[in-house]
Structure formats: C-alpha cells, structure tokens
Design brief:
The structure is a homodimer. The first copy, chain A, has helices at residues 19-27, 32-40, 47-51, 59-71, 93-96, 99-112, 123-135; strands at 75-81, 86-91. By secondary structure, the first copy, chain A, is mainly alpha-helical.
Chain lengths: 143, 143
Amino acid sequence: MKKRGTACTANELGRSACPIANTLNLIGDKWTLLVIRDLLFLGKRLYGELMQSAEGYPSNILADRLKRLEDAGLLEKHPYQHNPVRYEYHLTAKGTDMFPILREMILWGNKHIEGTTTPPPGFLDHFAQQIVGGRKKTGRKKG
Amino acid sequence: MKKRGTACTANELGRSACPIANTLNLIGDKWTLLVIRDLLFLGKRLYGELMQSAEGYPSNILADRLKRLEDAGLLEKHPYQHNPVRYEYHLTAKGTDMFPILREMILWGNKHIEGTTTPPPGFLDHFAQQIVGGRKKTGRKKG
DNA sequence: CGTTATGACTTTCAAAAAGAAAGTGACTAG
DNA sequence: CTAGTCACTTTCTTTTTGAAAGTCATAACG
C-alpha cells in the first residue's frame, strides 16, 4: 500500500520487456480496471461517486489505485474546491486508450460468463467513436 | 492458494454482474494472463517449459494458476506419459478467445510504455486469422 | 459555543495471498 | 546404490488486502 512508481518504461518491476507483462504492472489486479471502467463508462468523477460503485471498493484500496493511476499518467486530478481542497478525477488520453482492452473484456465476459449484463446496442461503438475516432486518425478495427 | 471455483456464472465472488468485473475474477491478477500468453503465443505446453518463461513464475503460483484456469475451463490438461503421469496443457476455445484482450494489451503497451518489444509485422494478424478466422464463422477479416 | 453531519481520505490491524526455497514421488542413467 | 530430472507440493516469511475506525476541514443546527 506504499510503494509506487511511474512505470512508464519497461522492466521497472523486474519483468521482461513484453508489452503484456508491462501493461499488467499497471492494471494486473482486481480493482484498477474497474476504477477505469467507472471513470470511462459510468461518468464518475469524485471519490465519493467512485465509492458508491457497485463493486464496493475498500476506501484505502480506492485511494491507492487512484494514486497509482495518477503516477502512471492514466488519470489526472484537479481541485474543484478549496478549503478543504477536493479533487475530481478524470482519465488522460493514456487512460482512455484502455478502452479497447475493456471492450474486449466485455465481449469475452458476455460470451463466456453466464449472467453478465450486456451493454445496450451501439454502446461500445459510441465509445469507440468518441474515444478512438474522436482523437486519432482511427485506423484498425471495423471498416 | 487453496480456494478455487468454476466462476462460470456471474456474481460468484460477490461482485456485480458486470462482464468486466466477472472477467477480472478470472484474470485480474499479475500472472494469469502471462500464463495464457505463454500458452497462446509462445507455444509452451509443459510445466517445465512454462517455468522457464522470462517472467519467472514462482512454482507454486504457476501450479495454482494452471489449476484455476482448468477449473474455469480456459485450459485442459492431458497426460502425455504414464508412470509417473505427466500432463501437457493447452488452451480451450474459451481460453484462446482471450486473444483479443491480449492483443489490445500489446497495442496499448507498445504505444504507451517505452521499451516494450513489438511483435513482428503480421504476428497479431496471423493469430487473429488462426484463432478467430479458423474456428468460428466470424468476420473473416479480408478474404 | 458545542454538537452533529459530511466528504474525502488515512490509519490500524487481522487475514489472505504472494513468493522463496526446500521437500516429495516416480522414475532414469551411471 | 547414488545422483539427477521432472513436476509439482509444502513450509514459512513477507507483502498486500480489506474491514473498520479515525482524521481533518468545514457547514449546519440548536
């Protein structure tokens, strides 16, 4: 619960230079991708909103993951009030780029785990458009 | 290191019915996806081959993850010798369907983490062809 | 002024998981 | 008979988790 690092270059945690291994250094745990999901799909911004997520984050874990994600450059926090200072969190481009990973996990879960909820029609395309289509030249996937 | 479950229906571990949350119940840790990577991309089959992976699995962790993946139906083990019985491991269709998740992690890692190795040209398409194009009727991506 | 409430964390601590290393069982080779 | 190998399993110490309580700044109430 204490050590953190930027993890922006390979091998920082003693692993190989494999992009999968290095990506897992950031999101290879039970909670981190759920925080990203809440920020990306569910429009949550504040600590309290995230705490009310259906997943029931332990508060210390949530605080820790937000810090790690900030250190890794996947999210930024900005003060929305002073005295006491409170922050709102939002994903950076590096964070929203996680979308394709989330999307494939949704598709895999829907296909292979009974009882998982399916996003409404067009939901994923909407985000793909917004995130991938909106910021970069698009390219891969779907013609 | 002891409890295991099939986790083939949602909510088994007290989480929401979200497909991301439920997929993370299976692969939301540091090692599991690396084992799948070794089986899927690197052609490893035997316990000893997996142990020689660049990631350096602790042997007890590797044994545990293989069991969990088998319980979840992502891999099967088959004996390749008797006395003593030894097994070889290979992914099921449910396991190889993880490919798109791995692919997106490779792309994300290559884009955002300096120093990660890039697969050779055509590598991912090759697998997409083999796995997605080969087993199901799906999109066939280019004839 | 004193008390209660709220939001956003932080600290504490018991329990669970990870990980290093040594052990086990069934052989095979020398 | 002794040493070596493969595929795990067990033991044990360290680290991480996670439930719950605590903290801090401020607002609202009486």
